[in-house]
Specification:
- The complex is a heterodimer of chains A (682) and B (94).
- Chain A is of the alpha/beta class.
- Chain A is built from 29 helices and twelve strands.
- Chain A has a seven-stranded mixed beta sheet with strand order 2-3-4-1-5-6-8, sandwiched between helices. Chain A has a two-stranded antiparallel ribbon with strand order 7-9. A two-stranded antiparallel sheet of chain A has the order 11-12.
- In chain A, a hairpin with a 2-residue loop joins strand 3 and strand 4.
- With 94 residues, chain B is of the alpha+beta class.
- Chain B has a single domain, classed as Ferrous iron transport protein A (FeoA) (SH3 type barrels), CATH 2.30.30.
- Chain B has three helices and six strands, in the order βαβαβββαβ.
- In chain B, strands 1, 2, 3, 4, 5 and 6 form a six-stranded antiparallel beta sheet that branches.
- The radius of gyration of chain B is 12 Å and the shape is globular.
- Classes of the chains: A alpha/beta (682), B alpha+beta (94).
- At the A-B interface, helix 3, helix 11, helix 12, helix 16 and strand 10 of A face helix 2, strand 3 and strand 5 of B.
Chain lengths: 682, 94
């Protein structure tokens, strides 16, 4: 058995690279970050015949410059790690653009195998690729595969195993039209896949000579010389030999143009029947990205996603809740039966099961939401949203893509914040994470329902609905203010590929959704577990030990400290402070805390509401206070789970802190304004 | 800074020279002549295949100038800022 073969997967975004990678590794992969950057690194292992392979999925890139983090990282990985073979995954249905990266990879000098993916689409379209001529022109093995149909997978690995010993770009067979006129006719055209104009080739030769005579050791002289001619920042900084007389200007544009000239030659020779059939994607895009139809189509699709999330999700969640009731009942009687102590019983039933279980009941909604999202993403629609919403969002200093997490926020802030990961620009991502929690999530609805029913009579619906509007306005206002205060005004201009529409791949979706669900479960098991215990402790213990009366608990003591701060908003009661704190575990808990704190049984019944209303009335808590409370609940820190993901996405305590302060500040300010201004009129 | 990729601009063409992609019509094809953007964006566009002389088809266009284009068989959405900085000429249909 040979040693392990390390294989790097490189390719353009949307070329099916991840699908191909998943086809080999399945869900058995290790996801980590590349050292020092927030780019995901995926690794998997497999065995083919007697060879062990370690597969590394690199970020999707269009070229190998040093302008973006992903490109630098890929370049570094290929040059510096002990990768044995590069699999260049190319979308055969967009061969012309994909070959550009291929040529750059070949130039790097490591063994490259070209995996021509999506051959099924090529055939469907009535196109043909000359599989004999293409490898001849590129000088590397070319293997047709279909990651979705799982064809060609073994042959590809076979080629990888056999191509690990890098020869020269071998078997090259070029017939360039201008070849006869070149004075570089000698060895170059047999030796290198891409041969540039005489002017550039002369300079490359001169630079290599200069590097060698100065004893500069580099892995690949030709590549190094080309990068110097492109005035590549990283290489220029690194090169200690002065070549400024040879590199009189940047030849980057010339080099790119000449690569594309060669690609045109390849396409001319190897691609038969270009664009034979009218493409379905163009027809769909006439509507989906149309000037007038784009936004309505988007709204319809979003409405459908919502409808599914809430109908099917809630239907499944009902089952979860019923199961939770059964478990709670069984746990209390079981614990009583084995004679567990009162403290232990309370901890398990009131603390852990109600806290963690309460959060788990959202799992079905989250599952459906991410299923729908994965569907939109994998089908190629998501990129269109950026274009459709661009003009609206750019007024807020956000990219069109930021709209997606904000919409999801109506469902649940947790997946919404997680969805901001799809944004490329870190500043864009940060702002989106900051404003998304203001979108009113479904957990806040029980609070609105309870208080608007109690205090607003026939206007109850309007009062509840106004919360959604206030949330949106708050998000938009804050995005606007953040944009105004941001010193770096320069917006990244919109430039995004709109991939071909395709039927989503079940395997890709399954892996994506499972990844998210696993994330959510592990969070419920850790963060929420701990938070539930802490809140239970605060409300069940006081200076005298375990207390039955919550007013003697540590929680009450904290409530008394906080109450005066909330007084300007008309919320200056210690019970409200405690309820709001308990709401950090999950927003619905505010409602159940009110029930417990005011000793009301079955709070959602008519009697329960009457009881709570009269008790609250004794404290002088009226309709205005109720509205202020609803606004506060809408805007303040959503829940521990959201905070945990905010922290994970921001990767900084500072920004998590900013997020918390922003939410608390906005909530206090808005509630106070409403209460104070309202008091003048009522 | 405008990088003139096509150096032999004669007087007859001079008038049409200032046309950018933004002035183009939906459903029509244009040839790229040059661009005047930040260097990183220019290189990114070239790497995506938008080199001088490349045909660009405008598939969809919004009032604010952002548009969907097709270059070398791939669709891209570009903002008004990019569309207004790419100089083009009308393609002579063969």
């Amino acid at each position: 058995m040979g040693a392990e073969l390390q294989v790097g997967f490189v390719g353009n975004p949307n070329c099916g690279k991840t699908t191909l990678f998943n086809a080999y590794t399945g869900a058995r992969l290790k996801v980590a970050n590349w050292p020092g950057v927030t780019v995901e690194k995926k690794e998997g292992a497999m065995k083919y015949h007697d060879t062990k392979f370690r597969l590394v999925d690199l970020p999707g890139i269009y070229s190998l410059t040093s302008y973006t983090m992903e490109e630098k990282l890929t370049r570094q990985y290929i040059l510096e790690s002990d990768v044995d073979v590069i699999i260049d995954v190319a979308d055969a249905s967009a061969l012309e653009r994909n070959l550009y990266l291929t040529l750059q990879l070949i130039e790097l000098g490591k063994p490259v195998v070209l995996a021509l993916n999506m051959m099924d689409i090529v055939e469907e379209r009535g196109m043909e690729i000359d599989m004999h001529r293409l490898p001849e022109m590129l000088g590397i093995p070319v293997i047709p595969v279909s990651a979705r149909k799982r064809t060609g997978l073994d042959i590809l690995m076979h080629a990888v195993a056999h191509h690990k010993e890098k020869r020269k770009d071998s078997n090259l067979e070029h017939h360039h039209p201008d070849q006869e006129k070149s004075h570089h006719r000698h060895e170059h055209h047999d030796e290198y896949t891409v041969v540039y104009s005489d002017e550039i080739e002369d300079k490359i030769d001169a630079i290599i000579l200069r590097l060698r005579s100065n004893n500069m050791e580099v892995a690949n002289y030709r590549w190094y010389a080309i990068k110097l001619l492109e005035m590549d920042e990283e290489i220029m900084a690194e090169c200690k030999v002065d070549v400024s007389d040879l590199v009189d200007r940047s030849y980057e544009t010339d080099i790119i143009n000449q690569k594309y000239d060669f690609i045109e030659e390849i396409v001319e020779e190897c691609l038969v029947n270009k664009n034979k059939k009218a493409q379905a994607t163009d027809k769909a895009d006439r509507w989906l990205t149309g000037k007038y139809t784009g936004i309505p189509c988007f709204l319809l699709i979003m409405a459908a996603v919502f409808f599914l999330t809430f109908t099917i999700g809630d239907w499944l969640a009902g089952g979860f809740e019923a199961a939770l009731d059964v478990i709670t009942g069984a746990a209390s009687s079981g614990l009583a039966a084995i004679g567990a102590g009162e403290v232990l019983q309370s901890l398990i039933v009131d603390g852990i099961i109600s806290g963690v279980g309460g959060v788990l009941t959202f799992l079905p909604n989250i599952f459906i939401l991410f299923l729908a999202l994965a569907f939109l993403e994998d089908s190629g629609y998501m990129a269109r949203v950026a274009y459709v919403m661009d003009s609206l969002m750019s007024k807020l200093g956000l990219s069109g893509r930021a709209f997606i997490p904000m919409i999801l926020g109506f469902g649940c802030s947790v997946p919404a914040v997680m969805a901001s990961r799809a944004l490329e620009d870190p500043r864009d991502r940060r702002r989106t994470v900051l404003v998304t929690p203001f979108m009113s999530c479904s957990a806040r609805l029980p609070i609105y329902v309870l208080f608007s029913d109690m205090f607003f009579g026939k206007w109850a619906m309007a009062a509840a609905f106004s919360m959604y509007l206030i949330g949106m306005v708050a998000a938009i206002l804050i995005a606007f203010v953040l944009n105004k205060t941001d010193k770096k005004k320069e917006m990244n201009p919109l430039l995004i590929e709109l991939p071909e529409y395709k039927t989503p791949n079940a395997r890709t979706i399954a892996i994506y959704v499972w990844d998210k669900v696993k994330d959510y479960l592990s969070k419920a098991g850790t963060t929420i577990f701990v938070a539930s215990i802490i809140i239970w402790f605060l409300l069940s213990f006081g200076t005298s030990g375990m207390v039955d009366d919550m007013s003697e608990s540590f929680g009450a003591a904290i409530g008394h400290v906080i109450a005066p701060i909330l007084a300007p908003a008309g919320l200056g009661m210690w019970q409200i402070a405690v309820a709001l704190i308990s709401g950090l575990a999950a927003k619905e808990v505010v409602v159940s805390s009110f029930a417990v704190l005011f000793g009301i049984a079955n709070i959602n019944s008519a009697e329960g509401m009457m009881g709570l209303m009269s008790t609250l009335g004794e404290y002088g808590f009226g309709a205005l206070n109720a509205y202020s409370l609803m606004v506060f609940c809408l805007l303040y820190v959503p829940c521990v789970a959201t905070l945990a993901v905010v922290h994970r996405e921001m990767k900084s305590w500072k920004w998590t802190g900013v997020s918390v302060l922003l939410q608390l500040g906005t909530a206090w300010l808005a509630a106070t304004l409403i209460f104070q201004i309202g008091s003048l009129f009522l | 800074m405008i990088i003139i990729l096509n150096n032999d601009v004669n007087e007859n063409e001079r008038q049409a020279y200032d046309m950018t992609l933004m002035d183009g019509q939906m459903g029509k094809s244009y040839l790229v002549k040059g661009m005047a953007l930040e260097k990183a964006t220019e290189i990114r566009l070239s790497a995506l295949g938008m080199t001088s002389g490349t045909a660009v088809l405008i598939m969809n266009k919004k009032n604010n100038g952002s548009m969907v284009i097709k270059v070398r068989g791939t669709r891209f959405a570009i903002g008004a800022k990019i569309a207004g900085a790419i100089t083009v000429e009308e393609r002579q249909e063969a």
